[in-house]
Specification:
Length: 149
């Protein structure tokens, strides 16, 4: 994998994704804030995989999907492919980062609101359920996978 072995990037992943984000997940407030940091964390891990420099532009979609496909469990892979419904890059990442809300094909919630086992299942309206704390656990595992690779 790319330059993730640089001590600075490893420390950044440990401090931000594995420590700071973990702290955010323990709060019972700010469900949207939890999803915002998850989206950013996924894209950052993808940037660490990318052969282009971290500052390269117009790489968000490639980096986000690369992280899902290479670091996350198989259950996410379908949603990282253009044409899937939902397509997590546009229906989750872009919507949450730029509009502070998901597309109608995605339902965001906390484990306080639903059983965590509902993560990546569909609700009665046909929207994919994303549970912040479960999604974060998978992000943290992806970060460790990248560090350990």
């Amino acid at each position: 994998m790319h330059s993730v072995k640089s001590p600075q990037l490893v420390e950044q992943i440990r401090q931000v994704i594995l420590t700071d984000f973990a702290h955010i997940m323990t709060t019972s407030e700010s469900t949207m804030g939890k999803f915002m940091v998850i989206a950013l964390g996924i894209e950052f891990l993808g940037a660490c995989l990318d052969k282009q420099h971290l500052n390269a532009t117009a790489r968000s979609e490639k980096r986000f999907n690369s992280a899902l496909l290479r670091l996350f469990p198989n259950k996410y892979h379908h949603f990282a492919k253009m044409g899937s419904v939902p397509y997590l890059y546009t229906d989750f990442r872009c919507q949450v980062i730029h509009q502070f809300r998901p597309a109608k094909t995605v339902f965001l919630c906390s484990s306080d609101a639903v059983n965590p086992t509902a993560h990546l299942t569909y609700n009665n309206e046909g929207s994919l359920i994303l549970v912040a704390e479960v999604f974060y656990q998978d992000l943290a595992a992806a970060a460790l996978k990248l560090i350990d690779s």
